[in-house]
TrEMBL record:
Transmembrane helix keyword on record: yes
Record-given protein name: ABC transporter permease
Keywords for the protein's UniProt record, in alphabetical order: Membrane, Transmembrane, Transmembrane helix
UniProt keyword annotation of Transmembrane helix present: yes
Protein source organism: Bellilinea caldifistulae
GO CC, alphabetical: plasma membrane
Lineage start: Bacteria, Bacillati, Chloroflexota, Anaerolineae, Anaerolineales
Gene Ontology molecular function: ABC-type transporter activity
Bilayer-crossing regions: 36-57, 77-103, 134-157, 169-189, 201-229, 249-268
Amino acid sequence: MADSIQLNHVKEWSVLRGFTNLLHKESRAWWGTRRWWINAILWPILLCGLMANMLFVPAIANLASEAEISQAGSLTAYVIQMGLSVFFEFGMIALGIGAIILLQDSIIGEKQSGTAEWLLSKPVVARAYVLAKFVGNTLAILSLMLGGPIIIAYSMLSIRLGELFPARPFLLAAGIMTVHTLFYLALTLMLGTIFNTRGPVLGIGLASILGGNLLGGLFKPLFYVTPWILPKTASLSASGLSLPPEMGIIPLTTTFIWIPIFILLAIIKFENTEL
């Protein structure tokens, strides 16, 4: 694999030597293969398909009780509430799992194949390697896994409502979805620098995203410093509801802060790793 990688001469800061070439490499891994169109098709179908069932299939609405409809305010409000819940609560968990699975091999695979060692034997610094992984995968995931579904979901909500859905709460929820996904992207990259096999990377990442609510239920302060409550936060925010700080700004801020911390730890670990 290393033989197929070509590094071009470019001018850049010495502290990030090799970043531009490595970013091109990461971009080609997405946009130069069928990976981009598979994800561009898969995620809108997965996330928006389930949402469409909630919004447009009459049988789903008929399952609602009179009390649920009354609490929501109307049948349309109830259906939209259910659609938002599916898109954000299920969708954010699905996107987090997707990020973990797609990136579990990003660093570990190159360590095992010798590609990482070969790259770092060139005029490339370790921090450029890690940052290129993060930036390249972030751009692709935001474009393919989030961008399409978010646009389609907003369009479907507007169609079901019969007018433009309120943009501000929806965009706020989409921002929360983005931060949540980037948390697991950064976590997976960091774990890839720590471990040499895929098992721990998958195990820790999936345990967090699937078991976090259980742990948070046992010790509620964990919700304040993790992304575990953010799917519910996004769903409620999209509905235009005002949330208390412990359910909104506090977990969102701490989750956002974890992202650069994970990347910094990944850089430190990678710079001190003998490949």
